[in-house]
Structure formats: structure tokens, C-alpha cells
Design brief:
The chain has 19 helices and 18 strands. The strands form three sheets. The protein has a ten-stranded mixed β-sheet with strand order 5-6-4-1-7-8-9-12-11-10, sandwiched between helices. It has a six-stranded parallel β-sheet with strand order 15-14-13-16-17-18, sandwiched between helices. Strands 2-3 form a two-stranded antiparallel ribbon. Helix 6 links the parallel strand 7 and strand 8. The longest helix is centred in the first third of the chain and has 28 residues. It is globular, with a radius of gyration of 23 Å. 49% of the residues are buried.
């Protein structure tokens, strides 16, 4: 366990968002997303100031009341931390988030484009880069530098693809700052980055290399990052050690897969809200339950998952009436046309599966599109097969969360392109995310697997996750930062 230290955590989405309820009272809700989940335990172990975007109108009001400075908040477990909400210009934030960060960087890093038709790097995208992505990263850098001036000795912990430029901006103003950046999404091979013009792709890589440490989930993503630094930035890259030298500085690159707060999940699985949702699910569940829990993001490959389930039903007619798929999907980024279109495709495919196979008393596929975390945890406890068939995923925490609390010797069917596969493949059934026949066969194998093998596989995942929990993930990265700072001082 690392010593308690001062940390400035920087991410687009914060650990809490503010709203007004029906009575006009201000309420605080836990922020969504895997990043917030992964970092939820930080405040209990370190002195944290968290800098994030003001996401709602009430967030902006709270930021204004605080004079755009940090104010005290508490985590769900009662730990105290400071929160600083950055209220960006609305037009700049829209360009940053809805033009550059998600339709551009997210799609690039998840290999989601059909390059014959998209993207078009036109004047509008280049303007969004300058007026949005650069501007918002600059506002984050201003807030970080202000907090560094207030808190002597604090280390800065940047997160994800929204903030690739901020570390360089901070380094230029505070040369001796301790900076670490974790990238939570895949890092593709260098050719993927050649879609961006040279100034933009250089800015991404140079911004990251301004950190003392860059972390990614897997060796695969780290190796791709090193190759990109070599080919696109002509940096001095040591593939053996993971060191990258540029501009007289050395950046350490490391891989540490994120994980789960095991104690929190154990408590959550036994909570009243989850038990109530589980009771409803048990009363209605089929004999065998195939589960998927995802966001409605194209990278999650939901439509192909439905097609694979339909193929399984076609091949195994004796299972009609006995098996069902439950898809719990959190609506994602519906301000972006590609996401709206993909949600519509999900709904069409679900309807097609049910139109083809439904019979009296049996609806093979239940689709729920809502943000219902207790309901998802209840379903985690009840699955017989968990389908995680992502096209590509930085990690996928669902693959760790669900087996941790499952009560039915459930089997994990896991995409070879999910970051979690690097850790969990000994205890999972591996699938190619594009191979519908292979996914259908994996569902059948999972449902017919001997119970002792199911039990061993589930125990293997649980043991691994409990030994490599979120606290160990954080400690490993802070240890990397200590190593980098020691090197710098010698």
C-alpha cells in the first residue's frame, strides 16, 4: 500500500454531478462511467483534489458559488475530498466533446471508421480542434496550475483521451510538476493515427509524453503506443524498458489493467436495492440466462451480439422456451448522430430477433435501455452466460464485476479484442467479435459446459480480481511515478 499523498485528479467527468429534484432541492448523484468507478476509492486513501468539467446546469451553478475554486465533497463511503468544476464555454465544450473527443478520437482509437467514407478532416473539424479541444484542454491546464500553486508537493493524475494536450501545457508552466496520465481506451497501431493531420497527431503524442508516466491497460496497447511514438514523433523509444526520450526528458510507459473495488461490490450485491431487483429478475428469468450489460456505443458490438444469439437459437431449437437474453444497455452520447443511429440499429435488431423466434409464453430477447446500476448488479448475480463481444475495448470492467458477484457458476464469453482478455482468457471462452458463428458456438459451449469446469473458471476470475483489485491498480501507478521522479533526481 502506498503512503498517503496529495493528488490532483483530472478527468472530463467527475465523481459527482449536481441536479435539482422535483421539489427544487439540490441533489448530488454519483458520476457514471468506468473511470469514475475505478477511481472511486482514491479519496479514502489519499488527499484528493478532483478537477472535472461542469456537466450540468446545476454543476455550473455550484462552480459559480465556489468562485470557480475547489470545494469540499464526500464520497459514498464518507471520505472527504475537494472538487473543482471547470465551467467551459458551451460552444467550445460541444466542439471538444461532441466533435473531437468522441466522434474523432474515440472512433480512431476503437477502429470504428469505414475509411472509404469517413472521416472527413475538413475545416469544421480543424476549427473544433483549435476552438474546442485545445481551448478546453487549456482551461483544464489553467485549473491544474492554479491548484499546484496552492498545494505544494501534489502529483497530477490525468485521465483519458479528453486531456491529451493538457500535460504539455502544465509542463511548460510548471516544469518540475509530477505528472502521470492513464489512457483508459485502446491505443491503435500507428497507421490509425495517420488519419489525423501531422500537427494534430504530433500534439496528441507530445502532450502525453510531457508526463513522467503514461499508463495503459495492457501490454498490447502499450506496445502500440511505443510504436506510435517511434514512427510518428521520431522519439527515442526503448521497447524493452518502455522508456521514451524526447526533448531532454524521459517518459516511462507502463501497463496496469484497471480493476474493481471488491469490498464495494460485495456490499452492493447485498444491498436492498440490488436484492429487490434480483427478486424481480428471479421471478421472471428463463431457465438459462444470457446477459449483456453495456453502453449503447458502437464499439460494444451489441448488434452482432444479437445476431449471434439469433444464430444460436437457429442452431439449437431444443432451447427455445428455455433460454433468454437480457440486454441492459445504458444510453450513451445521444447528442452524437453516430450513437443515435447505432441505438436505432440495436432496437431494430432486437425486434427482428423477437419477431422471428417469439412464441406464446416466451420472448427470447429482453432489451432494457436505461441507467439502472442496481438492476445490472442483480443481473450480474443471475447470469449463466455473460457475453462481452466488444469490437475493441480498453479493458471492460463488466467482465470483472459480473463474475465477482455471480451465484450461478456463470461463464464469461469474452472478445479477444477486449483489454480484459489479456488477464482473464484462461478462465473465459474467447471469441472473435466479428465471427457470428463462433459467438453462437461459444454460447452453446457455455450452456453445456460441465458444472465443475464452470465453477473452476468462475473461481479463477474471482481470485484474480480479488488479488488485483482497484487499490493495487492505483498503487502500481503511483509506484511508477515514484520511480520516474527518483530517476529524474539522480
Amino acid at each position: 500500500m502506498s503512503v498517503r499523498r496529495k493528488l490532483i485528479v483530472v478527468s472530463n467527468r467527475g465523481p459527482v454531478t449536481f441536479h435539482r429534484d422535483a421539489d427544487g432541492e439540490r441533489t448530488a448523484r454519483r458520476g457514471g462511467g468506468g473511470l469514475v468507478t475505478a477511481l472511486g476509492t482514491l479519496a479514502s486513501r489519499h488527499d484528493v483534489t478532483w478537477i472535472a468539467s461542469a456537466m450540468t446546469g446545476e454543476d455550473r451553478a455550484v462552480a459559480a458559488e465556489a468562485g470557480d475554486k475547489a470545494f469540499e465533497e464526500r464520497t459514498r463511503d464518507g471520505s472527504l475530498f475537494s472538487l473543482r468544476l471547470v465551467a467551459h464555454d458551451a460552444e467550445a465544450y460541444n466542439s471538444y466533446y461532441n466533435v473531437v473527443a468522441n466522434p474523432t478520437l474515440w472512433f480512431l482509437q476503437h477502429s470504428l471508421w469505414g475509411l472509404a467514407t469517413e472521416p472527413d478532416v475538413d475545416a469544421a473539424l480543424l476549427a473544433a480542434w483549435t476552438d474546442g479541444y485545445e481551448a478546453v484542454n487549456g482551461a483544464f491546464a489553467d485549473a491544474v496550475c492554479d491548484e499546484l500553486a496552492r498545494g505544494e508537493g501534489a502529483a497530477v493524475f490525468f485521465h483519458d483521451y479528453h486531456l491529451y494536450l493538457a500535460p504539455r501545457l502544465v509542463r511548460d508552466r510548471v516544469p518540475d510538476a509530477a505528472l502521470i496520465h492513464f489512457v483508459h481506451i485502446p491505443w491503435p497501431e500507428p497507421d490509425a493515427w495517420r488519419v489525423l493531420p501531422d500537427p494534430q497527431r504530433r500534439a496528441v503524442h507530445a502532450g502525453l509524453l510531457a508526463n513522467d508516466v503514461v499508463g495503459l491497460h495492457t501490454a498490447r496497447w502499450r506496445d502500440n503506443f511505443l510504436q506510435s511514438c517511434d514512427e510518428l514523433l521520431e522519439a527515442d523509444v526503448d521497447r524493452r524498458t518502455g522508456d521514451v526520450q524526447i526533448g531532454g526528458r524521459t517518459c516511462l510507459t507502463r501497463f496496469h489493467p484497471a480493476s474493481v473495488d471488491v469490498d464495494e461490490f460485495d456490499a452492493l450485491a447485498a444491498s436492498e436495492a440490488v436484492l429487490a431487483a434480483e427478486q424481480e429478475l428471479v421471478a421472471e428469468r428463463p431457465e438459462f440466462l444470457v446477459l449483456r450489460v453495456d453502453r449503447t456505443d458502437p464499439s460494444k458490438n451489441v448488434v452482432r451480439g444479437f445476431k449471434a444469439f439469433a444464430r444460436y437459437l437457429e442452431l439449437q431449437p431444443e432451447m427455445h422456451g428455455r433460454v433468454g437474453m437480457l440486454a441492459l444497455l445504458d444510453p450513451s452520447r445521444q447528442d452524437i448522430p453516430a450513437y443515435t443511429a447505432y441505438l436505432e440499429a440495436i432496437e431494430r435488431e432486437a425486434a427482428a430477433v423477437n419477431a422471428r423466434f417469439t412464441r406464446p409464453g416466451w420472448n427470447p430477447l429482453e432489451l432494457r435501455i436505461e441507467d439502472d446500476f442496481p438492476g445490472a448488479v442483480a443481473a450480474y448475480k443471475q447470469f449463466d452466460v455473460l457475453l462481452v463481444n466488444a469490437i475493441v475495448d480498453g479493458l471492460n470492467l463488466v467482465a470483472k464485476e459480473a463474475p465477482l458477484v455471480n451465484t450461478r457458476e456463470g461463464v464469461l464469453v469474452l472478445s479477444e479484442n477486449a483489454g480484459a482478455h489479456e488477464e482473464l482468457h484462461p478462465w473465459a471462452l474467447t471469441v472473435n467479435p466479428f465471427d457470428l458463428e463462433g459467438q453462437a458456438a461459444a454460447i452453446h459451449e457455455a450452456l453445456t459446459m460441465p458444472v465443475e469446469q464452470r465453477r473452476r473458471n468462475l473461481a479463477g476470475i474471482r481470485d484474480h480480481v480479488r488479488r488485483h483489485d482497484v487499490a493495487a491498480w492505483i498503487d502500481a501507478q503511483l509506484g511508477d511515478l515514484d520511480e520516474a521522479r527518483i530517476r529524474l533526481s539522480t
